[in-house]
Amino acid sequence: MPAKILDGKAVAKRIKEKLALEFAALRTRGKAAKLVSFAVGVDDGTTSYRKSQKKQAEALGVDYAMVDLPAEAPKDAVVAKLHELNTDNSVTGIILQLPVPKHLNGEELARMIAPAKNIEGIDEVNLGAIVMKRYLNVPCTARAAVELAVESGIDTNGANAVVIGRSTIVGKPAALLLLDRNCTVTLCHSRSRDLPAIARQADILVTAIGTKAGMVTGDWIKPGAVVVDVGIIDVGEGKIRGDVDFDSASQIAGFITPVPGGVGPVTTQMLYQNLLDAAKKA
After folding, report:
1. What is the CATH number of the domain that holds 80?
2. How wide is the angle at C-alpha 17 spanned by C-alphas 12 and 20, nearest 5°?
3. Does 160 share its domain with 253?
4. How confident is the model at residue 48 (pLDDT cuts 50, 70, 90)?
5. Model confidence pLDDT, tens digit, residues 204-216
6. Is the CB of residue 15 less than 8 Å from the CB of residue 264?
7. What is the number of domains present in the chain?
8. pLDDT tens digits, residue range 6-34?
9. Handedness of CA 244, 164, 111, 109 (dihedral sign)
10. Is the dihedral of CA 220, 226, 232, 235 positive or negative?
C-alpha cells in the first residue's frame, strides 16, 4: 500500500491560520511584531524572496521593512547597521539576506544579530538553547521537519529516529528536537558506515543531504516508516527533487513528504512562529 502523503502545504495553511489569530491577539494588547529584511546589495533573487516574505507578513498583520546597504558597503558600515537594528526596540526579528558580497562573511554577520532577534535561529545562543531544552528561536527547517514527522501521528516515545546530515541548520537541531520528543536518535553523515542499514532501522527518517537527487531509495526504508525529505536539489529545467527517490520509497514507507510541497511551506511558517514567540517575550 502506497505511503500517505504528509502534505506540507495543508499543514502550513493550518499553521498560518493559527498564527494570524495569535498575531491579531498581540495587536489588541498593543504589541506589534516587526520583521526587518536586511540586505547588502540587492539582486533579482533577493527581490523575489522578499516579495514572498512581504506577502506573508501582510497576511499575518506583521510590519515588514527592508533595510538595504549598497553591495560595496564596508564591513564596519554593515556591522554598525546591524547594531542599530539590534538596539531598535521596535524591531522584533531580523533576517539577513544571503548571499552577501564576497568581501563579507555571511555566517559571521548572522552571528552578530542579537539572538532574541535572530529568528532564523542559526547562532550559538539559539542552538545552545536547544541543548538546554530552553527554546528561543529554533532553526526553521529543522523545526518544520519535526513538525511534519509528528503530523503523521506516530508515537515518538522510544521511536528510532535517524537523521542523515549533520549541518547546524537542519541535521543537528533536528536530532536534538527529536531527542526532546523521547526518540532514540542516530545522527548520520557522509562517513557513516553502511548508511542504508542504519536508515532501515528508522521509524522516523529525516534526510538533509542535498547532494544527489533520489539518493535514498526504497531499500533504505523500514516498512511503515515516516520519511521526511528536507533535500532540495536542482535537477534542471526549473525542477527540484529531494534526497529521497519518491517513487520507490513511497511504496515502502507509511508516511512521506513530497518535494516540492513538503518541508518547504512549513519552514516559512516556522519563521513566523519564531517571530511570534519573540514578540511575546519582548
Report:
1. 3.40.50.10860
2. 120
3. yes
4. confident
5. 999 999 999 999 9
6. no
7. 2
8. 999 999 999 999 999 999 999 999 988 99
9. negative
10. positive
